[in-house]
Specification:
Radius of gyration: 16 Å
InterPro entries: Carb-bd_dom_fam9
Shape: globular
Organism: Labilibaculum euxinus
Distance between the termini: 16 Å
Protein name: Carbohydrate-binding domain-containing protein
Number of helices: 2
CATH class: Mainly Beta
CATH architecture: Sandwich
Order of helices and strands: EHEEEEEEEHEEEEE
Helix content: under 10%
Domain Carbohydrate-binding: 23-211
Number of strands: 13
Pfam families: CBM9_2 (PF16011)
Strand content: 35-45%
Length: 212
């Protein structure tokens, strides 16, 4: 899959909530169940934009159950109700994985594959601005929990790369939803992943993205 990431700099005038600007942007579904679909299945989508110096990312999740046990960065948040963003900038063998539970607790690392990874320091992770919101609601006739996670990634967060601007930059990426320790474990992807068992670290299955 391919994704063109809009530049919203022109929509910003003075003091403005960046995510208010994103409300009109397109929802991108995370709906590929490569390893079996649960019932009822979580409904997940994301919006993404940039202003040349910051990546703006919003997740919107509807599910029957949430779990949030981890509050310290670099804990195994994939076991909680979790959304993830993996990105490899063009020309780089290594990629970043950013994983967040519904509290906004982050596990972040960089490396060439699942096993060869270097954790990002908490001082780096703390530069990611995050905001979470959760409520009970009815959707499609079902009582569900709706949680939203809004994130701002300044370029300094990509600390193993020397990036001074995003305009025109290309990368590969994937976006995920999981919950390893939920009553109904699930592993959902934006770009399809062809593997016998759940594995989000297959860089060859990332989709192509471009920052406009």
């Amino acid at each position: 899959m391919e994704l063109k990431i809009p530049n919203i700099s022109a929509s910003m005038n003075g003091e403005v909530d960046l995510f208010e600007v994103m409300k009109s942007l397109e929802d991108n579904p995370i709906d590929r169940f490569s390893w079996g679909k649960v019932d009822p299945a979580p409904m997940v989508c994301f919006k993404i934009a940039h202003n040349n110096k910051t990546i703006l990312l919003q997740y919107d999740i509807w599910e029957t159950e949430t779990l949030a046990r981890y509050s310290n960065h670099n804990a195994p948040v994939c076991k909680d109700s979790c959304v993830e963003f993996f990105i490899a900038f063009e020309g780089e063998q290594n990629y970043y994985n950013f994983e967040f539970n519904c509290l906004g607790t982050c596990h972040a690392a960089w490396g060439s594959d699942r096993n060869n990874r270097q954790l990002l320091k908490s001082t780096i992770i703390n530069q990611i601005q995050e905001h979470t919101k959760m409520q009970r609601a009815i959707k499609n006739g079902l009582p569900l929990i709706n949680w939203q996670l809004s994130l701002q990634f300044p370029l300094n967060v990509f600390s193993f790369d020397d990036i001074d601007g995003l305009i025109g930059k290309k990368a590969t990426a994937n976006f995920y939803k999981c919950g390893d320790d939920l009553c109904q474990p699930h592993f959902i992807t934006w770009n399809p992943v062809k593997a016998e068992k759940p594995d989000f670290h297959l860089k060859s299955h990332f989709g192509r993205i471009e920052f406009l």
